[in-house]
């Protein structure tokens, strides 16, 4: 398949009178890492959650690997797409191995535990961590486990919602490095929500700047830096202290 | 760990305002085997209300029937008028002693009548018409309200009648039963008839008021004219010179079934009519309430002295053990206590298990139907607001008296804590774990099964523990509908003013509450997922 991993066309979504998304169109090529950036309330998280139907959108169309998501059964769709929430969302009453094995286990895979161990290694966690309880892990280790869980089912598309937002600067940098490594070794496509422009520029092949439910600019990092499309993007860059290229 | 103890004590205290209570004495008498001719007939169920004189009269009914070869089941100490009457109407019991004034005012809500014969005619006709219940001819004495003062007070002010009392009332403190303070034929009517105005009026329960009077905490109490305590404390009963109090003639109240199926039993009971005078009754009550003879022994000797039964030499007077230690007393009662404790455990375990069986699935279902949840849980909560005695009374027409209505009532009581805490715990289970489960492709049922329910385990167990401790406490009230258990000695002790007997039920009940809670704490530890146990420990320390 050579089409885009995710194709978002003119998607709109309102919460009552609040218009969270207005005619948003974004294309995520296979193997890309697209960062959705913007301030709180810009609609970036809502857009991310429309992709695996955690949020029902009002109009427009979203296709994942060529299939309209509205034709997919939501549970099957979500199992096919990895997801990393901001706080990790590990089930506190399951050991790390079982947490990571969640999706293969839901799918009835006989080798769920083995897949989990492979994923744990892929995100750079020590094998002994598999037998720990989530609360015994550091914040960074928990996020690594959450990423492992998002890929253990063999998912080739992963949605990440502010995955490193709650971590300190050093852990965040480590985790970003881990994601870069992971992408090198696999054909993963990532859609990443972040409010941190530095993170977006470091990880993303393409950055989508959102503001009040609309796409302000959608371009590779170098273009955004070099030619901010609007005064808003320029101001955002200035505020983040990102030097123009 | 204070909570269970408090709950058990509260439940025990909850009995007290209801006035008085049940049995044990009956156990002392072995039941005689009826002759073969009658063996096919259903035994006659003889009941009483929860106070000493009612016990004694019921025991006399029972022994009288047994002496005529009629087999008897004893259900002493039924809750109060409503409970006993409901049981009689439904056929759960066949006969119990009642007073015409109570039938007239508390049951029929008729205006007070001052002529004894007129009162009897009125209740006789109304009970027959409405429920087919028959008042047998009166036993021969009245047990009306009595206003009593210490002999010293009577001497000091020259009190002989209620009119005398009205003169000095503004200098006296009254301690009256809450019932008497409220009802029209009690204090309000009395105050109006005699112009009585006390310096103060304190509500005091049945079991305490005579002691309060004797120790000069109050100066005037209400009582019943045949109370044994009047003699015990040497009190003076003031004459109702304006005939304010309605007549309270005692009589056997017989249900429709017994009249229809067993005329021989009815005619045997009639033999007591007109045989008991007020002085005789006061003396009998005194033997039970003051001298501590067993109800069975006093009943037997009373029947023998009335030539209604043959005198039995085998009857040993068994005064209350006065000097032995409480420990020895408990040891002596160990067989009864063991039976009561087992029965009590049954009254806790079965309703609790049934409560879990219904409550858990209901709460889990409601978690999926949030809109229905609040109305349903509030409806279940309404059950909780029905006073225990009332709920038990409601059960009687449906299930009779005994263990069944108690099991059902306790089951209903256990539902609310279980449903409420399960629902809340499941609903509020770690939102980020729930969101992650959903985002990664768990079905709602899988989220409930694998995420919400295990994370809610400590909250669910908290609800079950609350329900269990409530059941241990409330089960003590089941004695009032003849279900037995540790409430039996408590209720009988209250009726007979026997503190040791009360404690012999109350202390094991409190210990049982602690043990049940401790046992469930272990279950809670065991059902809580390992990483959550530390947090659960923190919470229980806070409690």
- In CATH's first tier, which class of the largest domain in chain B applies? Mainly Alpha
Judged by helices, strands and strand pairing, the structural class of chain A is alpha/beta
Number of helices of chain A: 10
What is the number of beta strands of chain A? 10
Q: Which radius of gyration of chain B do the C-alpha atoms yield?
A: 27 Å
Physical arrangement of strands within the biggest beta sheet of chain A: 6-7-8-3-9-10
The helical percent of chain A reads: 25-40%
Strand-and-helix sequence of chain A, N→C?
Answer: EEEHEEHEHHHHEHEHEEHH
The CATH topology assignment of the largest domain in chain B is: MetI-like fold
Biggest sheet architecture of chain A = 6 strands, mixed
Poorly predicted spans of chain B = 1-36, 313-321
Helix-strand makeup class of chain B: alpha/beta
How would you sum up the global shape of chain B? Answer: elongated
| Number of helices, where a helix is a run of at least 4 consecutive DSSP H or I residues of chain B | 26
Please indicate the percent range of residues of chain A in DSSP E strands (runs of 2 or more): 15-25%
Total tally of structural domains of chain B: 3
Global geometry of chain A: globular
Report the mean per-residue pLDDT of chain B as an integer.
83
* Poorly predicted sequence stretches spanning 5 or more consecutive residues of chain A: none
Distance between the termini of chain A: 35 Å
């Amino acid at each position: 398949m050579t089409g885009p991993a995710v194709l978002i066309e003119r998607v709109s979504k309102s919460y009552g009178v609040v218009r969270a998304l207005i005619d948003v169109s974004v294309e995520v090529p296979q193997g890309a890492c697209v960062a959705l950036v913007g301030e709180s309330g810009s609609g970036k998280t809502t857009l991310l959650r429309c992709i695996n139907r955690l949020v029902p959108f009002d109009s427009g169309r979203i296709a994942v690997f060529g299939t309209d998501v509205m034709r997919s059964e939501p549970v099957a769709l979500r199992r096919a797409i990895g997801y990393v929430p901001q706080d990790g969302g590990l089930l506190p009453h399951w050991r790390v191995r079982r947490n990571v094995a969640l999706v293969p286990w839901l799918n009835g895979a006989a080798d769920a535990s083995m897949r989990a161990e492979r994923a744990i290694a892929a995100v750079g966690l020590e094998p002994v961590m598999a037998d720990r309880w989530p609360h015994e892990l550091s914040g960074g280790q928990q996020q690594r486990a959450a990423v492992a869980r998002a890929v253990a089912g063999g998912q080739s598309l992963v949605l990440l919602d502010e995955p490193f937002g709650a971590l300190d600067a050093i852990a965040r940098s480590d985790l970003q490095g881990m994601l870069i490594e992971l992408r090198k070794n696999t054909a993963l496509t990532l859609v990443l929500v972040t409010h941190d422009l530095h993170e977006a520029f470091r990880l993303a092949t393409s950055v989508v700047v959102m503001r009040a439910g609309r796409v302000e600019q959608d371009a590779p990092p170098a273009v955004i830096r070099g030619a901010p499309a609007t005064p808003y993007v320029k101001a955002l860059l200035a505020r983040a202290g990102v030097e123009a290229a | 760990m204070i909570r269970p103890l408090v709950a058990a004590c509260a439940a025990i205290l909850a009995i007290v305002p209801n006035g008085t209570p049940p049995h044990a004495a009956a156990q002392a008498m072995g039941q005689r085997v009826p002759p073969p001719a009658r063996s096919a007939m259903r035994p006659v169920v003889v009941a009483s209300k929860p106070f000493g004189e009612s016990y004694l009269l019921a025991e006399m009914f029972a022994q009288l029937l047994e002496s005529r070869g009629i087999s008897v089941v004893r259900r002493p100490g039924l809750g109060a008028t409503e409970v006993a009457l409901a049981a009689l109407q439904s056929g759960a019991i066949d006969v119990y002693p009642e007073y015409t004034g109570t039938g007239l005012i508390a049951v029929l809500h008729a205006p007070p009548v001052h002529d004894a014969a007129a009162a009897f005619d009125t209740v006789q006709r109304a009970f027959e018409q409405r429920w087919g219940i028959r008042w047998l001819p009166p036993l021969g004495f009245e047990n009306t309200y009595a206003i009593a003062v210490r002999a010293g007070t009577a001497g000091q002010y020259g009190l002989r009648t209620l009119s005398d009392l009205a003169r000095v009332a503004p200098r006296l403190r009254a301690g009256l039963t809450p019932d008497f303070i409220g009802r029209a034929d009690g204090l309000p009517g009395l105050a109006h008839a005699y112009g009585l105005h006390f310096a103060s009026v304190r509500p005091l329960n049945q079991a305490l008021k005579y002691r309060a009077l004797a120790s000069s905490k109050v100066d005037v109490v209400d009582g019943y004219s045949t109370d044994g305590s009047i003699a015990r404390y040497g009190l003076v009963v003031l004459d109702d010179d304006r005939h304010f109090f309605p007549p309270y003639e005692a009589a056997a109240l017989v249900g429709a079934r017994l009249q229809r199926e067993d005329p021989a039993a009815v005619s045997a009971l009639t033999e007591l009519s007109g045989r008991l005078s007020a002085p005789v009754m006061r003396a009998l009550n005194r033997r039970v309430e003051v001298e501590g003879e067993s109800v069975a022994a006093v009943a037997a000797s009373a029947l023998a002295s009335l030539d209604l039964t043959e005198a039995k030499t085998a009857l040993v007077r068994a005064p209350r053990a006065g000097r032995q230690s409480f420990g020895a007393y408990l040891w002596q009662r160990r067989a009864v206590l063991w039976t009561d404790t087992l029965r009590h455990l049954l009254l806790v375990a079965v309703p609790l298990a049934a409560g879990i069986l219904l409550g858990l699935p209901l709460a889990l279902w409601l978690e999926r139907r949030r809109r229905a949840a609040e109305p349903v849980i509030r409806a279940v909560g309404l059950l909780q607001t029905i006073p225990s005695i009332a709920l038990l009374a409601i059960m009687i027409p449906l299930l009779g008296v005994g263990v069944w209505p108690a099991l059902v009532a306790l089951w209903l009581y256990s539902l609310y804590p279980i449903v409420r805490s399960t629902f809340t715990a499941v609903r509020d289970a770690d939102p980020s774990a729930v969101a992650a489960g959903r985002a990664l492709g768990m079905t709602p049922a899988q989220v409930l099964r694998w995420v919400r329910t295990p994370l809610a385990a400590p909250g669910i167990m908290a609800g079950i523990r609350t329900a269990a401790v409530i059941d241990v406490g409330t089960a003590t009230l089941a004695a009032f509908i003849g279900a037995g258990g540790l409430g039996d000695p408590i209720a009988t002790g209250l009726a007979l003013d026997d503190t040791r007997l009360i404690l012999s039920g109350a202390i094991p009940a409190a210990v049982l509450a602690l043990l049940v809670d401790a046992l469930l704490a272990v279950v809670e530890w065991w059902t809580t997922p390992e990483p959550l146990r530390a947090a659960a420990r923190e919470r229980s320390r806070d409690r």
